[in-house]
């Protein structure tokens, strides 16, 4: 009898212990539904409590069927997500069973609420200000309040709340409401340069959770170049006020939506501040690189289209999503592309300080093969180009040797800056002997290709045209193969014709989208202008060239897309006819260009003449 009693007591103690454990000490199980990988990864990183177990769940038809298995359920329902009737009933059943449901949605859902206003406010403060400390606060609060477990959990503390507008740095809670306080902070950490350039970095997404985050990477790279970087979180008029307060030399807008509307445009215009608008791809790196579109839908509108309306240029990709050690796709900067973007930023800043007499500009003009006239869409190239060059000379640019008249410039172009079809072997030979082309030997050209192009692009060239420099616009002398480049150098300004982007008789296809890589002379001309001539800026003069139609992605290009490979890292300006908005948009996005419009010719009624006038009178 005593043994039975002892067994009953032991069993009762075990049952009581089990219920006690479940009631006071068991792990708190939290499901995060429809949380994107990068959002959930912040939660995993922040969680330091072994008594809090988290799980990421995708949103499907029967996601909430077993919702009562969790002590709390966080549902992210932004971006057009709406629960259907069946899902709502399942959530209600989970709430009835004791599961706390935190429904984050722009649409009111009173039937799924009931946690109490104070509890909802606390959680929202943590979510909207999601530093690692706030995420830990939220998890602990979930265990202590929603799961009602007081063991193995910290006391609830007040969440950190960001000001509405502020400057920030790399630390999660290093925020400053006033510019002077931020400058003091930079001086204390030794990263403020008294005579450095001020850069306003306006990010649509705040910060990053580690030093591999793209914002942190970009800030660090810019600071190592001696710039004072002011990351800003602000919206509406406050954003413009914060930007103007630092008197920036450059604005970098990591865009999502408009920068500041008319107020922002006016602020940039009055102070002559360029605004670069790099983008981060909301897709896995490998998927983006394989894509032929690059970016589309709402992200294209918000990250590229809307910033353009406020003056943003250069939608250059600096980051994408990469799978981390936990198997989650999180945002990371692409180091080589950030380096190139920093180089582009430095060159834009240099254009404001460098004396015009020292600036080197490569201007690509339009010319058809042979002795054809120099005509772009609605533009006579020779006299218009001559006017531009004379204006540049008056502004102090070195244009030694500039012809005295437009006719003399046109004659010089026909002689020293021609374009040839692949059929014109005799004319090419005459140009080699008498046209003074720029020459690049095979070793120099090979080195340039390997230094500047991704291996995939070099392979494309070799597969299509054989070993460099190919058999077009090239010859062999005693020192080996040589590539010829048409160019006219006038002091620090060099004029180059836009070379043929392909071979064959279909000029429309060559200009508007050959599906093959551009020939060696085409690649050589752009790389020579950037790396050998060392241009401070590139310009395309007239509508239109062909580089914006070379393969492959349509927007948000990578280094394996030809416009990116040939132009990235150097400021690019494109003089384009005002009435061709569609193709100008392509040029702006794919060649990272700042567009300068020119007018179409004036029209007037022609009237009748001669016999036609007599016939009209008779009628």
SSE class = alpha/beta
If helices are DSSP runs of H or I spanning 4 or more residues, what is the number of helices? 22
Distance between the termini: 132 Å
Strand order of the largest sheet: 6-5-8-7-9-10
Q: What is the CA-based Rg, rounded?
A: 32 Å
What share of residues is helical? Answer: 40-55%
Shape: elongated
* Low confidence ranges: 206-211
> Beta-sheet strand percentage?
15-25%
How are the SSEs ordered, and which strands pair?
Layout lengths: L1 H24 L2 E6 L3 H10 L5 E6 L14 E5 L8 H12 L3 E5 L12 H12 L3 H15 L19 E3 L6 E2 L2 H10 L9 E6 L10 H11 L3 E6 L3 H9 L4 E5 L6 H11 L3 E2 L2 E6 H6 L6 H13 L7 E7 L5 E5 L1 H19 L7 E5 L9 E2 L2 E2 H14 L11 H11 L8 H10 L3 E4 H11 L2 H11 L8 E4 L2 E6 L2 E3 L2 E5 L9 H7 L6 H13 L4 E5 L20 H6 L4 E6 L3 H10 L2 E6 L11 H9 L1
Parallel strand pairs: 1-2, 1-3, 3-4, 7-8, 7-9, 9-10, 11-12, 14-21, 14-22, 22-23, 23-24
Antiparallel strand pairs: 5-6, 5-8, 12-13, 15-16, 17-19, 18-19, 20-21
Helix pairs in contact: 2-5, 4-5, 7-12, 13-14, 16-19
